[in-house]
Amino acid sequence: MCLQNSVWLLSDQHFLKVHYPNLEVSEDCLYLNIYAPAHANTGSKLPVMVWFPGGAFETGSASIFDGSALAAYEDVLIVTTQYRLGIFGFFK
């Protein structure tokens, strides 16, 4: 998870009823998660859904969204992104 305001993070977890499974914080946090149906191969022409987590550039994480079920049931590739927040990422 990228560096972020822990007060907002904990309030989001309580208010939105979300669970952050791994609260390890690091500056090395630019990555993509790609979820594909089990039958997908290099020749599959599946639609792609890209998700950028919200949070007003202060909170949020791609790790709270597991796209495996959506990819399997809707026959689509799911791409989630993780980017730097706050002063380390986009300025306000």
Automatic annotation (TrEMBL):
Instruction: List the Pfam families.
Output: COesterase
Family annotation (InterPro entries): AB_hydrolase_fold (IPR029058), CarbesteraseB (IPR002018), Carboxylesterase_B_CS (IPR019819), Neuroligin/BSAL (IPR051093)
Keyword Transmembrane helix present in the record's keywords: the answer is no
Task: Pinpoint the Carboxylesterase type B domain residues.
Answer: 2-91
Which Gene3D superfamilies does this entry report, sorted A to Z? alpha/beta hydrolase
Q: Which SUPFAM superfamilies match?
A: alpha/beta-Hydrolases
Q: Which UniProt keywords apply?
A: Signal
Q: Signal among the record's keywords?
A: yes
Q: Which domain of life is it from?
A: Eukaryota
Q: Tell me its family.
A: Belongs to the type-B carboxylesterase/lipase family.
Q: What is this protein called?
A: Carboxylesterase type B domain-containing protein
